[in-house]
Amino acid sequence: MDARVPEPAAVSEPAPIPESVPVLIAGGGPVGLATAVELAHHGVRSLVVEPRETVSWLRPRAKTTSARSMELLRRWGLAETVRARAPLAVSWSDQALFVNSLLGREITRIGGCFGLDLAGSDLAAEPGQQVPQPLVEEVLREAAGDALLTGWQVTGLREDADGVTAGIVSASGEEREVRAQYVVGCDGPRSVTRAAIGARYEGRQDARPNFNIVFRAPGLAERMPHGPAVHYWVLNPAQPGIVGRLDLKETWWCIAMGVRADDADPVGLIRNLVGADVEVEILATDPWSARMLLADRYASERVFLAGDAAHQNPPFGGHGFNTGVGDAVNIGWKLAAVLHGWAPTSLLASYEAERRPIAADTIEAAAANMATLAPELADPALMGDAAEFERVRPAVAEAVLRTKDSEFHSLDLVLGYTYEGSPIVAPGAGERLPHRWLGPGDSLYDRLGPGFSLVGDQREPGAAVLVAQARELGVPLRAVDLPGEPLTLVRPDQHVAWRGTDPGDALRVAVGTT
């Protein structure tokens, strides 16, 4: 699949704009769309207001969908679609190579990157996937269906005790108002929703400039001496950066580090990174600086922030939109529980309590990854003759492995984050339910219900207690019988709410009624 040419979308008549909707979502990037898909997973209607009519492939931004996000896509029935359309199969490579130029000498390599090697592992129901963000957006757009309203933008919000009135405007200047019970702001760094609730970013911006380029380079792939890799880190002091493939044809991306837009010569930058005067066609450029920003609050009574509206982190480690997908699932199931009447509105307060610390940890981890980049690892001797190169290569390789391992091996953050200490989680619980395969292709996660699940030996006395609680509260609860195993109460987002023998009020705590 050529990364420049998306598959044509089916043309259909736009649905009429509703006057009211249970949930309005400001912004239809991957996080806003994920929120809509999560709500639909629980039978809740939403309206996603997004100014872009189509998804552009010229600035692919995120390229790594984490193992955790792929598990959530599997939960929605979309993981296979993403993998089938991805230009790079997950089996193609899990390597990051460090070189003195793309066509030059290899310094070292790191394998098992980004959870791409997890296929068949008990650690996860899905491995990670290298895939351009626009493709993920297109799959989510299809899943969102007529919940997506393109060509319109949220311009303001008025919140009252009974709901929120959103002002929206079309590209032609037409103005409307839509009434919603709740609003989720997924409208990015310049968020209207963040301003509407009086929240503000706290943090800093990195001073170092970066320059992204998407380009075509016919014949370059055939000249590559190092084999497949998802990242090629070029440690050339004169032009350090990262290069990667967007497809298995001729489309590539690169990050030229330390380059300001005013000084950029895109063709020259690419040739320096490649190490040869290759034929190049520039498709898009995008100057940027990394930001470490976290909203001081995530919510009012009826408006919630998710994704870049709530947090921004450096891209190193591939955590950006993946953290936002986690936001979407967390607020999505909780809004559904409240709207369906089996949880009180107080449940919604747990969204910020659970997700803001995860974003803070992610920002810290990504900033640590950014502390050592290609410019810091480059050594002028790497560009010398073979003897000079070999003299410094072991020391540079050691520095690479010491400083970059956590960037490529971050499953403790991706799969291991926990909501321990949350007001709706029992002591000692909160982690993602440990995954395992029950048989070939039979994931434990596939047995879970869309609501709560009770996993373990259903003959245990505590099982009857939780079933009775669920019936009393009207909470959807699916029993997953695993004879001989202890009981575990699993939330809709696959995180553990309680485990043990005596549940007490575990389910009431988990839905916020105590």
From TrEMBL:
Q: Which UniProt keywords apply?
A: FAD, Flavoprotein
Which Gene3D superfamilies did the record assign?
3.40.30.120, D-Amino Acid Oxidase, subunit A, domain 2 (3.30.9.10), FAD/NAD(P)-binding domain (3.50.50.60)
Q: Which InterPro entries match?
A: FAD-bd, FAD/NAD-bd_sf, RIFMO-like
Q: Which residues form a coiled coil?
A: none
Q: Which cofactor does it need?
A: FAD
Stretches that traverse the bilayer? none
Domain spans labelled FAD-binding: 21-365
**Record keywords: Flavoprotein included?**
yes
Q: What domain of life is recorded for the organism?
A: Bacteria
Q: What is this protein called?
A: FAD-dependent oxidoreductase
> In which organism is this protein found?
Nonomuraea rosea
